[in-house]
Design goal:
The structure holds three protein chains of three kinds.
Chain A (H helix, E strand, L loop, with lengths): L5 E10 L2 E11 L4 E5 L6 H8 L7 E6 L2 E2 L5 H6 L2 E4 L11 H6 L14 H15 L14 H14 L4 E5 L7 H16 L3 E5 L3 H7 L2 E6 L2 E7 L5 H9 L18 E10 L3 E9 L3 E6 L5 H8 L7 E6 L2 E2 L5 H6 L2 E4 L3 H5 L6 H6 L7 E2 L4 E2 L1 H15 L16 H13 L5 E5 L7 H16 L3 E5 L3 H7 L2 E6 L2 E7 L5 H18 L1
Parallel strand pairs in A: 3-8, 3-9, 6-7, 7-8, 13-20, 13-21, 16-19, 19-20
Antiparallel strand pairs in A: 1-2, 1-4, 4-5, 9-10, 11-12, 11-14, 14-15, 17-18, 21-22
Chain B lengths: L1 H21 L3 H13 L9 H26 L7 H18 L4 H27 L4 H20 L9 H8 L1 H21 L1 H11 L1 H6 L4 H27 L11 H10 L11 H20 L4 H29 L1
Helix pairs in contact in B: 2-13, 3-8, 3-11, 3-12, 3-13, 4-5, 4-6, 4-11, 5-11, 7-8, 7-11, 8-9, 8-11, 9-11, 12-13, 12-14, 13-14
Chain C lengths: L1 H9 L1 H16 L6 H26 L7 H17 L4 H25 L4 H20 L4 E2 L2 H8 L1 E2 L2 E2 H19 L1 H11 L1 H6 L4 H27 L1 E2 L7 H11 L11 H21 L7 H29 L1
Antiparallel strand pairs in C: 1-4, 2-3
The chains are: A alpha/beta, B mainly alpha, C mainly alpha.
Amino acid sequence: MSTPLVQFSGITKSYFGVEVLKNISFTLPAGSMTGLVGENGAGKSTLMNILGGNVAVDSGSILLNGKTFVPSTPQESAEHGIAFIHQELNLFPNLTIAENLFLTRFPRATGSPFIDRQTIHRRTSELLAEIGLDVSPQRLVETLSAGERQLVEIAKALSMDARLIIFDEPTTSLSIRETDRLFALISRLRERKLTMIYISHALTDVLRLCDRIVVLRDGEIAGSGRADEFTTERLVTLMVGRTMNQLFPTRSGKPTNQTLLEVSGLTQPDVLRNISFTLKRGEVLGLSGLMGAGRTELARILFGLDPCASGTVALEGKSLNRLSPRQLIQRGFAFLTENRRSEGLCMDASVADNLALTTLTEHGRTTVRWLSNESGRKAMQRIRGVVRLDPKASDNQAVRTLSGGNQQKVVLGKWLLIRPRVFILDEPTRGIDVGAKYEIYRLIYELADQGAGIFVISSEMEELMGLCDRILVMKAGELVDELPREEFDRERILRGALGGTVFQERSS
Amino acid sequence: MTVSSAASVESSSVALLRRLFLSNYLVLVLTVLFFISLAPFTPGFASANNLLGILAYLLPLFIAAIGLTAVMITGGIDLSVTSIIALTSVVGARIMTADGSGGSAAFGLCAMIGLGVALGAMNGLTVTVLRLPAFIVTLVSMMFLSGFAIWLTQSKNIDQLPQAFLQLGKHLPFALTITAVPGIAVHLLLRKTVFGRWLYAIGQNATTAHISGIPTRLITFAAYVLSGFCAALASVLLTGRLETASPVLGREILLDIIGATVIGGTSLFGGRGTIVGTFFGVLFLTVLDNALNLLNLSQFSITITKGSVILFAAVLDTMRQRIARQTV
Amino acid sequence: MKRLTKPLLQFAPLLLFIGVLLFFGCQSPRFLEVRNLINIIVQASSTGIVAIGMTFVLLTAGVDLSVGAIMFVAAAVAGKLAVSGRSMFLILPVMVSVGLCVGAFNAFFITRLRVVAFIVTLATLFIGRGLGLRITETRAMNLPDSFLMIGSFRWLSVPLPAWILAGLLLIAHLILTRTPFGRQIFAVGADAEMARKAGVRTKTILAGVYLVSGVCAAIAAMVSLGQLGAVSPKFGEQKEFAAIAAAVLGGTSLFGGRGNVFPGTLLGALLIQSIENGLVVMNANPYIYPMATSAVIFTAVVMESLRNRVRRSSAAVL
């Protein structure tokens, strides 16, 4: 046996007296692809931060190629051939592809202060050809799609002669087709005997891609072994530490036949074309489609955030056209955006302040809207119970310090406080662990059973198929298919979302 | 035993220091310390007359800083306050000196306030409707309004203003009332009302605020209007105190106003700041300025000291923020 | 409609500049004479030079309010040395070192103590003004004629200030577009934290731009001295605002990562100067200058923001 590329032994790390990693030991054989799974807070990011030189260990050691490896800065880790592909991409939109690849090590002709542009363009072209991306090295990164940027990231890793590439939730912002393209590239990299770590909540992807899997729970290894020894169910059980009978809660109610929201003929040039659908009271309606198909754009238009050239939206027969978000909220609309950090929360503000954002006026009396603390506090305590927010999180704690799942619960709580009748959720479980996902699904069902209409946008097919009563499929700004629960079919949805023509359009 | 109790005494005194350091009253404590330590060596520093002088000097600064605090909480800035002060001063003076009757003082006062509100509204509209960065918008209006005031008067002062009007700035009880009423009102507005909470939310994250149904544009607009209104009041006090309307009135206090607000704990990035803090900031700068004047230091030493103090306060604030964050 | 507005907005500062030239050209034929055009460049040179340094700073999403004060201190030191009979060869390097020192002072507080640039440079403005007043003893100071040479010396019938401006522009442009330092400035401006993680020495870059800004301010002080021949207590006052205006007029974003010195900042500086010059040629009331200038700056900024909005909306469709 050859020496493993990386060997973790006895890694321990605490923050403020809380052990987040307890005596972690495992190896990464050279040329292997290891899946690292676990709930948020299980210690995955801390472990990777140690490898990336962002965090120092309390005890334990890492051997890289048999030699002790103690990176103290991200640069040091990069110099040793460790590259990260993060969910938030680390590319500068205002620079060209070539400049992004060579930012910290621009080649210069001897004695010249200037960058040797010819060389970087030539080498970038070679790297882009290697990963199968056919664009000019001089393209500005801001003109690339999310999937293309992901590939550029990989090109960057290759350009640094990476020996170990760590993918951290690489597919969260990719469309289905871009994900396929990424996976194809990953398998080519495997053939080249690159060692990789793949971190994801999408367990099916992990099972499909990896040779070996390590499951972390509460800072300890809950299980590890060859990938074919695991199933999704077993992984979930190991991750949450109890048997989860199901990923989705049981639905007690059923959708009604009463139309709640009627959308007809929504059109905005270059964004949406003639979108018509209805949402019934008590229904959970899903929207599937590729990244860039116009799903989020549709949600934003429904919520009055973006303009719309023509078409009508009516709530129980009353027109809602040209209303502001504020007016829509007063009529019972709620919108959980796909980006909770920049659009859903005030990160530095407290839990209480964030929960109160939507309902301040309800607690204001008199014309100057003097705030009544008592009624606000009562509502706050009630909603904390409803969304089952971590009781350890105090009302005055900044939401920045909460885990992703608890942050999302705060956003949900904020919207549940207005007692929504139409709730639009855009990627409600992105980057959230299995346990918190279940809670969110439960809340969605509760709300639907109370007669609200739920409109869920998601890139996770399993989520839509498990959660929804009906799924709409969107392609290039148009609705192309509609499936009632009985007809749910993964392939049919994919076919609709991809369509025959899209391939040609996109690849040209 | 003794060792551990000594250690605990030490750790509790460290904790006390730490609490003091992170407290909202740090600036006030520093001001008092500064005052006490300088009073024995500075002739007349603690005299009633001088304290009243400090107060009179402080009031216009404070009132202008109130409006600026509101604007900065939204994440904006208003560089045009002193230009508004100058323009309202000369326009008001023009109206009041057009005829010598007593009635024109009231009319002039109303015109000044109306003009201040209108100019604030203009800034607010440009920031919210055209969505330009506040720094540039108010920089341009600073240049334009100050140019306009100078052009209007051909760079001359206007004297012989009605006594009734001058009393507003000169007579301390009047000036105190003019400052205290809006000061307390805005303080309560920020602390106790929906408007205040919205203002902070906008400064923390305008996108989240907008999606959460907060009328972000209206509230931001209101902050600039408030700033214009406060600038006009400051102009009334300054014009009265100096007994003359000048097209460059207040030009040298712009940086004092901004500096005091920041020393008082208002963040340049929005979402943080209080009226009480701003008051402490203004008090601090004014006491410092006064002491330096009494010590008979030259103009250049005063300027240098003031700059260093602003810098020192900013370093302190940066450290406090960092420690406060780590504590969470 | 969209097809027409897009390129129109793309070249907003240039079009505005041409518009201003045409307007004044129609008002007075003297305005468009070559002599007057060169005059505009010469008059714009000190603001232009300060604005070059300011562009570096703005590109990192910072701001340098102390440039006017740096000019004052450098000029005051130069005046003191010149009056005591020192030679130009000593004075000019000393001025540059003054710029470097103040820049380093700013850089220390911004990078080491991590205080917001706005406040640090605001404080430096106070301190610098105070220092300058101390050195000049609050009096105006006349300089020997050798200084006026900087302003009046001509090569190919173009005065030296214009050459200095052109030279600095060329150097700055090459630094920003062709050197690792320049490209890393753009990276830091786009996202400083990300740049740090990528291995860019963020602190060095940030310190660098404040040094550049300090040096540019010092050189601008030389040019200004050459033109005025005297240091008054108002020397360099409000220059920071003119420089920011010129850079922003030229399309540099206050939020960092976007902008250029050529043609952007140059156009901005020339635009501001041609308005003032045009009004002089027209014999307009001098009190009208600041109003006219700020009105044009406002127009340009509005056009720039519309342009950004068009770009953003077309990016969203991608």
